[in-house]
Amino acid sequence: MKKDKATTQKVPPYVSYKTLENFIDNSLKKGVPGRIDASVYPPSFSGSIKWQLTSALTYLGLINSDGIPENKLDLLVAAAGTEDQQGIWKTIIEDSYGFLLNSNVDLKTMTPSQLREAFEKAGTSGATTAKAIRFFMSVAKAAGIGLSPHVKAPRPYSGKRAKKTNTGKPNGDQQPHEGETTHHSTSEKEWNKMLLDKFPTFDPTWPDDVKAKWFDAFDKLMGKK
Question: How many angstroms separate the CA atoms of 199 and 62, rounded?
């Protein structure tokens, strides 16, 4: 039986480019290990960051599906901090972002909507699309690839909203009544715990697009977006 294309689709990277850059410059510069797995990541990385980084390395062809480093990763690490890295990044992008480079959309004249539509067709959705676009724009800059002046990096969603007064108008300076903070805080914690208990358990065998949606929803639930 053939697998549905949507269930096997690889989602474009949406980890922070800075995270990938620091991992290459600081961790791998000491020596590329025989396999990239959770044990070689800095202890400060959360589980979701480790998964996103591994997914990015795989999508970019820097490691294979078993975590074994490819030649491109060795070249990228060796060229870290030098001008040679630009050409290597360009090759990586040309090999990985075919859905953009081989489309009818011109990178130098595209609109923000065209870019978003391309990423959504490639498997991203919601906040993940904005993250994937920011990552692509960062690696395109590292590769010296010019993009349309109309395209700007989407702003990260903070998840914070201004409090409202009784009149319904935002008022960030409004203070709660005595005892109100504790009540709301406790209720919020209890509500979050109830949601967390109902949240589906992560399954590493899920396809990449499902994993991406799981982490996106989990981060929202934990207030990280």
Answer: 32
